[in-house]
# Entry
Amino acid sequence: MANAGFLAVLSVFLLITAAFALMIVNAKRAKAREFQKQIKESWGCGHPRQFLAEELKSIREYSDSLDDEADKMTSVDDITAKDTDLNRLFSIIAGGALSSPGTEVLYSYLRHPLKDEAALKERIAREDFFLEHEDDRLKVSEALLETGFLRGGSFFHYIASLKGAAPIGKGKYLLLGILTAAAIALLFFRPVAAVIALIPLLLVDYRVHVSMKEETKATIGGFRAVLHLMRGGEKLLPALSETHFAGERERIRSLLDRLAPVKRGSYLITSGGGVNTGILDGLLEYVKLFFHVDLIRFDKMLASVSSHEEDVIGLLETIGSIDAALSAASYISSMEVSARPEILTEGGESEGASILIENMGHPLLSSPVRNTIDTSKNVLLTGSNASGKSTFLKGVALSAILAQSIGIAPASRYRAPFFRILSSIALTDNLLGGESYFVVEIRSLKRIMDAAEEGGPPVLAFVDEVLRGTNTVERIAASSQILSSLTRRDTLLFAATHDIELSYLLEDSYRNLHFQESTKDADLSFDYLLKEGRAESGNAIRLLSAMGYPNEVTDRAAKMTERFLSDGEWRL
# Structure
């Protein structure tokens, strides 16, 4: 009878356990289905990810670490990145990223355009795979979420913080732990004496442990980043196609094998007593607080991680490159018009610097007007205010950056060599440095001239309103000489100007193109279409009139302009 009762209770217990297990399995399946639905719906949407200024600063640390002398020959500098609003473009492409390493590597791609065709083809192959294989894409996406995002900083930021970490020594923590254990053991033999010893000892344990945990907070954050990477690598390994990602699979497996010693005892240091911590984790927190097992283990883990620094960075780069390819592929699928670049190599179709972009639209505009440019000759761009000159310059620059970084252009065709890309477009005074606009401008232009002299990849440069910070006479004289000096076989320069005189002075060495407005019933309109030749009219005075300036101001300004054009003299 007793056995029957026991079996009945056991059966009920097993049924309840099985029911709970089934509920957990169903919940996990529902969560996986919901995740896959979200991934499918977000794919190709082109929604930007919002980054705070501090987050962007942290994300770019990995990219900045690549800036050796060789990389500076092709990297996009801060002036060009600001001119072209590259951070905004990054935030759109990064909308498809699923991990911090993905955003960090993607950012480095945009700031370090490639100069090697084989490397570019490898990136394109990864993107094409994700564009063509939805099931594999979903598997990889789920695995990348295991790496995820670290709150408050990039993975590289946390890992880099380990470089300056110093050992804390384990002697005093080991001694405190032994004394605490001895005092607890004494409770069974001499309770009163044990309590007298234990109370101050526990207070010392608490203060010492809390103080040291605060000092080592950044380092422990680095440890957690490393373990997140390893866990992400373990999840990613079976999700990657053996056929298309054989090299990445082998690298991840090799890196994980070498990093295996880092995991030993890591739970003692990196586990936390948060809100959702279980009972065992809660007990471990008390063990750490009064026996210092985490601080005793700290130096050994620091030495282990430090000795595998290259392996950790290698794992970040490998996981990041896969996520970057995934986010780039999502961005590409959102583009209305796109083309893989045709790279002109030395001895190929074209000699020197040249570029062909057909039906190019500015990648940051939702409905851009598309233009075609095909030139091996420097371009002087004229046109009235607000007609589209600056937008065109930035569009060409971003097309080249995209083509050389993720292998796509916002156009129906892109053909060019690998360029070093520089600009001088949206400059401002350097108030903190005490430099006027003109000084900032001539420094910016000088770096383009220096780049043209350095050799290496051809220079693709963009200048908006050359020397606008000085008077007309000196501006035309100096800017004509600067632009003339940049007429070289290995330099392609796009310059926009309001000084129509330059279009005559430089017509033998520069190709004149322009944008033009049209007027109807005193209203100005723009078609933003690129046209051959120099601009024949301006619209500054008409814009004043449209903005409500008095007729006596605009009419007199128009008459002054007519007199100057007829006799070359200014008179009020």
Observations:
- The radius of gyration is 32 Å.
- Residues 165-317 form one domain.
- The chain has four domains: 2-158+321-334, 165-317, 341-538, 539-572.
